[in-house]
Design a protein that fits this description.
heterodimer; A: about 200 residues; mainly alpha; elongated; B: about 120 residues; mainly beta; four-stranded antiparallel beta sheet; 2 helices
């Protein structure tokens, strides 16, 4: 049960009315967003553990990249949660339920974490799941809900970049990216939702 | 209520199409000559099943690899693109899933119909 108050206690919300007229299933959209922000929040938590285990010559070399992804995934949570409440949804009261309904599996520290490639594989899988998850929100809102779409597609852009980082580290394919200006820069989602401080 | 969703020729064998009925996305497909219809939302985490692939009589969700039998609706496999040993670390609450929501589907006079309404 979300923390949202009963809908009938509010006056008509035009911002929701237009979505329904555009053919958006608002309940389904809220469900997908809640799962998406759940995945971002749990990923932020697990990336903290993964980053702590990026040690040794190889590990220290990727620690900053893991940190960039970690803080930007937290930013994604911050960017989308205000939109969830605008839509009449809310976060589950209990964080355990929040984690259990997350759209992506837990990015656990692998047993063989001394092998840095094993950590990179976990990071890559988490980013790839996030791309699928926000892709669903983009597909549902494209041309119908520009506000949600705008946030989701900006999150998608950063998730795609994160995937590219980890693929490049794993496969050594040619790389188009350069380092962020600062940790948690979020070049695409900055200024959205709860990120007005960036 | 019975809805005509497409002509028989529109749905070739081993294909599937999503139709929107009353704000719900309904997946209608033909697998090895047999028709099926289900809600397009994966019962596990809500991904679009239409983006998945067939594996025998199962549809494989592209999000986490869960497999559901399109004729019985039953969850058949909880495998994933993650390795099995790490996948099983996930909490039971996270892994569990309902079965597919199926809808009656029929073919008549060159068209395909599904039964969709308050009962389902």
């Amino acid at each position: 049960m979300s923390a949202s108050t009963k809908k009938e206690s509010f006056p008509k919300i035009v911002a929701l009315e237009v979505l329904e007229k555009n053919g958006i299933n608002v309940e389904k959209l809220k469900e997908l967003i809640t799962k998406g922000v759940g995945a971002e929040f749990t990923t932020y938590y697990y990336y903290t553990i993964l980053r702590m285990h990026c040690t040794g010559l190889e590990g220290e070399g990727i620690k900053e990249i893991v940190e960039d992804a970690r803080i930007e995934d937290r930013n994604h949570f911050e960017a989308m949660v205000p939109r969830l409440y605008e839509l009449g949804g809310g976060l589950p009261r209990d964080i355990r339920k929040f984690a259990d309904q997350a759209g992506c599996p837990d990015a656990y520290l692998p047993d063989n974490w001394e092998d840095i490639n094993s950590i990179l594989k976990v990071l890559l899988e988490a980013e790839q799941c996030a791309i699928r998850s926000w892709g669903e929100v983009c597909d549902m809102t494209a041309g119908k809900d520009p506000r949600t779409y705008d946030i989701a597609q900006n999150i998608m852009q950063e998730e795609v970049e994160h995937e590219a980082w980890f693929i490049e580290l794993l496969s050594k394919r040619p790389s188009g990216h350069f380092r962020r200006s600062f940790v948690g820069q979020s070049p695409h989602t900055r200024g959205q939702g709860g990120l007005i401080h960036l | 209520m019975l809805y005509r969703v497409c002509s028989s020729n529109d749905l070739t064998d081993n294909s599937m199409i999503v139709f929107k009925i009353n704000n719900d996305n309904i997946l209608v497909g033909r697998r090895n000559g047999r028709l099926f219809s289900c809600n397009n939302s994966c019962p596990h985490r809500g991904a679009s099943l239409s983006k998945g692939d067939f594996n025998g009589d199962n549809i494989v969700c592209y999000m986490h690899g869960y497999e559901y039998n399109v004729f019985t609706g039953k969850l058949e496999h909880m495998k994933s693109w993650k390795k099995d040993n790490s996948w099983m670390e996930q909490s039971f609450e996270w892994r569990k899933s309902d079965d597919l929501t199926l809808y009656p589907v029929m073919e008549k006079d060159g068209a395909i119909y599904i039964e969709f309404g308050q009962d389902n």
